[in-house]
Amino acid sequence: MGAAWELRLRPDALEWQAGRRCGRIPYARVTWVRLSFRPVTMQTRRFVTEIWWPGGPRLSIASTSWRSLVELHAQDRAYGDFVRELNRRIAAAGATAAFETGAPALLYWPGLAVFVGVALALAVLTVRALEIGAFGAAALVGGFFAVFVWQSGTYFRTPCRRSWCRDS
What is the end-to-end Cα distance of the chain in Å, rounded? Predict the structure, then answer.
């Protein structure tokens, strides 16, 4: 929760405002754009565009908006249109930006290792419970395993950092 974000695509720059904070990022000065999949809470379809430029901090633009303390609203179509137009303008301005998709490798690979380890541990616990005849425990742990793989596995289906356009 916080101040509302306003983003505007101007002819030569992206302008943003969040409460009293505001900024302007000239398209030609953008050095790096990353598109990534970042699910949160119950919003399993949340994407984030991060923009780096030498004149200021990284700007993150999410595909969802907070409606309340616990409710997120997806803006898939408007977000997709906005990001496509932003990327088109960055390319048209002649920026030497790197365009990438996915999570940073320092987050993705350790996270994948933890995911695989926890999934294997839950699978082993389920099998052990079945071997000793604890069918209730096996069902409970098996249920946790299924939900864990379904929810967390969605995140790891996207590859880590993949370049999709280097020269635009």
Answer: 35
